[in-house]
Structures
1.
Amino acid sequence: MKIKTAYLGMYLALALICSYVESLIPFYFGVPGIKLGLTNVVVVLLLYTLGTKEAFLVSVIRIILAGFLFGNPFSILYSLSGGILSFLSMYLLKGGGKLKVVTVSVAGGVMHNMGQLVTAALVVENYHILYYLPVLLIAGFVTGFFIGIVSQEIILRIGNRV
Amino acid sequence: MKKRFGKTDFIVLLVILAVISLAGIFVVLNRENGETVVIFLQGDVYQEIPLTENREIEIQKEGVTVNVLNIRDGKADMTDADCPDKLCVHQKPISKSGETIVCLPNKIVVEVKGGQEGDFDSMAR
């Protein structure tokens, strides 16, 4: 148990560093809110190696801490809804057992953006911003795909030693 | 290769992509030139301005100017905001019906309205 706590702390730190690196990269494609999703590498890795509960915990705490460090209370709200929706979809797809990491990660990326935009629409009470949904979903697809490839390689190479 | 990518993955990814593309095509086909710009502040209508006017609007919240919207040549563009990330300022000018600029920290939505509005609006409000 003690070792596991230390491990989780380490992964949380890693996820926070990913958040920080991401906040340094200007990543802009005409629509706000598109991010690389580097931290998802850590979440996917944990989901496949340590377990569901652990991955969920690290994901949620990471979002809250990163929100206070690099964002604002609003970004926490949006990231949290995106993060939880993304995690749920990844968990369910992974549970099916037939899909590989890449696909699971793509679903996570797409659902993350979906959750964020729907929350944003609810907060500003304007459903027309859902207009950006297709753009954000494509972005989620592309970033999720690349993040998935990276996660896949990490899991295949060092997954059994984590 | 099997360890990394299977047939099921291919099918699932293709389906996801197809659904997204359909949604995208639907949105693009529904685009038309807008006529007015509506500024929403915290969900309520703040101001409605025809796109044909060339003017600058200071959006005020509790007496303080938080965002500046510039309407020029039929396009609306957010030129200034007091939030740190300035995402709305970086957004491209909008002119098509249904397009929006959103400032999340200040809860401001700028939306272009077109000539023909569907039932969707009355339903969504």
2.
Amino acid sequence: MSRLAGARRWGRGATPYALGAPAVVWLFALFLIPLVVMLVKALETCSPITQACTMTWHWSEFSYVWHGSAQSIFTSLRFAAYATIIDVLLSFPIAYWIAFYGGRRKNFFLLMLLVPFFVSFVIRTIIWQFLLSSSGIILTLARDLHLVGPNYHVLQTSGAVIAGLAYNYLPFTALPIFVALERIDKNLLDAARDLYSSKVEVFRRVIFPLARPGVFAAFLLTFIPAFGDYVNQQVLGGISNTMVGTVIQNYFLTFSNPTSGSALSAIVMGISLIAIVIGGIAIGARNLGDYV
Amino acid sequence: MTTNGSDMDASIIRGMTQPRITRRDLFKTAGAVAGAAGLSSGLSSVAGALPNSNVGSKTWWASQHAHHQLNFANWPYYIDTLNGTHPSLVEFKKEKGTNVSYSEVIEDNPAFYQRIIPSLSAGGSTGYDIIVMTNNSPQLGYLIQGGYLIPLDQNAMTNFKKYASPTVKNPVWDRGNKYTMAYQSGWTSLAYDANKVKTPGNSLQLMFSTKYKGQVGMFADPIELGAIGLLALGINPASSKPSDWTKAATKLRQQRDSGIVAAYYGNDYINHLKSGDLAISQCYSGDVFQANVNGSKNIKLLTPKEGLLFWTDNMAIPLYAANPRDAMDAMDFYFSPLTQAVVEYYVDYICPVPTAKNELLKPTGWDKSVLTAMKAEIGLTSTQVASAPTVFPTAKENAISKPYYQFKSQTEIDTWNETFLPIVQGQ
């Protein structure tokens, strides 16, 4: 065997690893290492003054933060679920229309969908605060038309937070669904019609099953960030709807308590994983690998 | 501490705010580990000399010279401003030849502390020569206890010694002004929208009025929330005991659970008050004055019979600062009545230099042209600012000014937080 041939053989075998290396490095440096650091921090005890931490193996930290924050976790789960459902119901028809009837202007319509999102996330949310405020244009008009009472308010309610979440994550729902619908071979629809399917049956038995991966991706991209969101609740919400993201932020920034913050973050990650599995099953994934 | 809507016991609530073991336990563990490993120096390195032990002495200050460069970190809208420049800093440059890089980076004491502590505990500079921290926050105490501030040069405090108000000289949070000099003071009280609240009365009980259900804003900062809760019960926060804290927390929890509180706010409360979402809100005195200047004349400050909570923002030089001499010069420059007159004309918080009032009425130096130039933008005459009791308090306001509770240990801070934090977090 010549050296050249040996090198070539080694090279061929290593190619997939070499190509995969950037992804592996990425995953290690930006996901696994921070994750381990977070878990380690949760078990340490830190001085509020110097912020220096010592490993004390405090497993009980997890049960403490769980008991203290379960309520905000459930609030977050509920809000994220409502926002995801609203987004899927809203964006499916939009994505469907663009994918099947958009014609040559598809890209233009997609752009229209995305234009509001060229503005920063926080600024968009604060603009909602202006719109929904008691002296904002919407409520002033509604009051003048006697549609609502003088003390009716939208800000500080759970509804305002859910609406804010639904609005802010809409493109993350619409785009994956659009991509899935766009990929559907139009001949399949003709074939179904040729086989005497009604319009409803075409949708139920052909279009929706083929769009499922898109719906699942939309669920992942909407539900998970909405679950950890802390901006919408702080800007639009009130007191009965504290979300877990706010509690974590307080632990880190207000109470110099990174230990509890890390433990709660770890719990939130665990719950997110469980939610992904449950969501996957509900949407109809037989195994998660199908859709990722 | 079981209360309605919550089935948590006290130990769980404590668990949310308190590290699992106390620091004393930690030292014990550290000692045991060090002993076992035969490292007798282990414990002494934990409890050893503070990082600032070799700076700030007379001889150290004698070796410090001006670099004509200064990095000043402050809160937003907290310095005189005219056409995008800060006249007091322009004057400082004229007098001392110092270029000042002024940044409005402090919006909240704990968050700013989190930002600077990694470099300080690693022995590096924060990048700032002057920082401004509030006396009622545990973080100023942390900086002093941790040895993260440079002791001030007591010989370079000429203006301070001559002009500083007795309310900020030798304060309880920094005896002898060893580390800090006041920047501005202020009151925390209630503000109300006079269009909605026709009969505000003169008591903090206003914040418990069911008439304004869902339109009352309170502060999310547990220090502020707890203090006003105590005051509303007629308890002086400075001499309160943990049992009083529990009483105040019960009252504040009732206020929340009966739907009176709209939300717990940070600095954004003033916008909600201006936009009409709130009828009443806990407030900082200077914000109300500035809101009036900016056209919201219906926002009024309540002067309650129970008292006004008095706080002070303090300038300090963080350890490892590159330009301590320039910082010292600037801090004393801000105690000149001329400088304070200009600052106050824009800022409208409580002035640490009472004689600045005379300057506002009758400017005697460089402040004259600046005050005249600023007038168009401010929209108030300097006489109006000079006669505002929220800037130059009269004996009447000083008599009801109440200091905050002075924490004596981390355990007390933890107890305070575990008492008031769950209210804010909806637990």
3.
Amino acid sequence: MANKVQTPDAILLHDYISGNESALQILIERHQSKIYGFIYSKIQDRTVCDDIFQDTFIKVIKTLKTKGYSEEGKFLPWVMRIASNLVIDYFRHNKKMPFQRETDEYSIFNFMTDSSLSIENQLIENQVELDVRKIVEQLPDDQKEVIKMRFYEDLSFKEISEITGVSINTALGRMRYAVINLRKIIEKNNIILTN
Amino acid sequence: MAKLYSKKRNSIKEMKPSAATISFILSYSQALKIVKVGKLTFDTLSN
């Protein structure tokens, strides 16, 4: 198993295209969390997320089997872009606005565990989290997207640039302006973000 | 930013699709055969 984990994506893809079906399973196991997490960050509905995840890999499989894949070494960004397009299609089809967060079903606080904090500190921390999320929501869409992908989804700037279809410098620039704007909003509203 | 307020590692990393979804994808992959005849492409799903 250790050897399989270290096998580069490009080699697994080559194996899969050559007929080794188990290579696909390794690729899915390796990247499922990131891809599914990305979809779930846009659509907080497990059933829809499973459908989009499934449709994403159906497209991946079809493309690979028709030998239409030519981006060796960039498997994850390629799959993420397919997932991103399917998420956009879903919102277009349902005429809903994307980037909805904080529903009864999903809240960032459900996943927070830090038993060492006192109840008071926990409340403060929760409030800080909520404040930050509210502040982020006030940013322009392009800056908000970069902030969320970088800090909430843990994507690299390279991955962000490939998913959003802009250069790395543009993604970096958006992050820079996002941080500047966050500071402006915090100063303007006298928000205290300390615990 | 001096401090990151997000708890991304706790929140996003554990998100995974259902076992049934993965199983479907792998079965689909095994069943799908794509044949090119000239300019035409035929998809066949075998059980």
4.
Amino acid sequence: MINQLRADLFTQRHSTGFIVCLLAACGAAAAYLYLQHQLALGGLNAAAANGVQGLSDVMVINLLGSLLIGLIVSRPFETKSVHDALLASSRGSFVASKTVVAALAVFLLGVPYGIAALVGRATGLEVAPAVPTTFALLAESGAEPDAAGVGRIIAVSVVAAILYAARLAVCIPLAIVVKRPIVVMAAGFVWAFVADLLVGAAAKWEALEAITRLTPYAPDHLPLPDSSGGELVGTSIVAVVFIALMGLVAWLLLRRADIK
Amino acid sequence: MSDDVLVTQGLTKRYGPATAVDDVSIRLERGRIYGLIGANGAGKTTLMRMITGLSLPTAGSISLFGSTAATPRQQDLARIGSLIEAPALTGSMTARQNMHLHRLLRGVPDASVETELLELVGLSDTGRKRAADFSLGMRQRLGIALALISDPELLVLDEPVNGLDPVGVVEVRRLIRDLARERGITVLISSHNLPELFQTATDYIIVDRGSVKRTLTLGELEDETQHFLRIEARDGERLTTVLEQDLGTEDFTVMPDRSVRLRSHLDEPEKVLRTLVAHDVWPTSFAAEGETLEGFFLSVIGGHRS
């Protein structure tokens, strides 16, 4: 497992796809903060304001996150490096390592948005959220944060990034099955929005709503600037357990599968 | 300690109604090079996938390195190096980075193995060139180096010279022979090309439609495919005496049907015939015979593939 993990981390360090996605997230986060500031100042017209939404964390992380999961999990099947990986360690270790690295990659995509929120608040930048996501709400308003405020922004950002990783974790078993990064990206991106619609529909039935509360798709789990510590911990636990569950599903799918 | 590196018993793989590998029982010994020969779709790659744990058998057992477990254990699989279908390269990395990645994967602590293997396969001077920009031959050689990174005892190579130019074929062939001779590695190498394997392998496993049709050593294959002059005469004893004393050769075999297989003088049958007649030996049958490698292969698989 450790060898597999070290190899996967080494691969990502030298992966053009990973580096490009991370840089794109950094650029998008910076641009999003600036454009939200322009929105607040009234410097953008309505049409441009719609375009700003395309740079929001919900769009960028879901798109690039599902692509990264596809690259991390599916690519070894394309390059055949999975052959050596499965000679070196068990299928369980292979899936466990991929799950950890995939979740970490999506988490890292959220970091630039967290930093942007922190910068926005620290500089007293006036912003108008184009989409009311956690990061946008963190950056939105409030006094310049003191040390505790900075800690809160960091904590909420970390939980929001973990939650993104959990919401996209369904891409891990999907990537094991389809073995095509581009398919995983398309399916993951669509799923991120469809899941919210399904959860919204499920809210009509009490039993279904109770079940969805155990998933990272429940609206209750969205970390907010004023979320309590208990809520943040609860959301983190749900997210981590869901990621582990998706890893388990991926392992069950790979356990006796023929590898081409 | 047993010299058996791999023993399969009744190994079978079915995909729905189709049987890809059917009741295959083979034994591979340490330090030998086994050529797995079969036409496309004969089941070679499926067999190799089962041996390397990539595919689970429908029936039968695989014993690696003397293990009594019916299916390969992880610690036994870790003693295998493989190149199946395509080299496991990460195109965005250099040769050295690819070596480093697989060394991490295999948990090999000694970093000097990277340099050693790159030198072995002649890729030590590729610098910052990405593997994606390598020629086919370079990719194959790097794939072999990656397969060797954990110092395997069994090397499984699926058509490693496919698509290589003649120089590349010679290089890979020499590399495989050196590995078996100098490191004692057992090599299982597949090909649909018997003449190519004839120059590499020490043993042959001929498969067709998922079944092993025949196993034989290099010596046996040479016997099967050797060309000779087949001579019959009423006085067999006189025939052999003339061959020895007057033609000056002992390179012949008397067959159970009393015919003689003469392996020398293949280019001068007229001289042989003249010598026999001159010494009053009148052949009742005189013909040049022998199989080509392809002919032998076709005869083994029943000639139903062209």
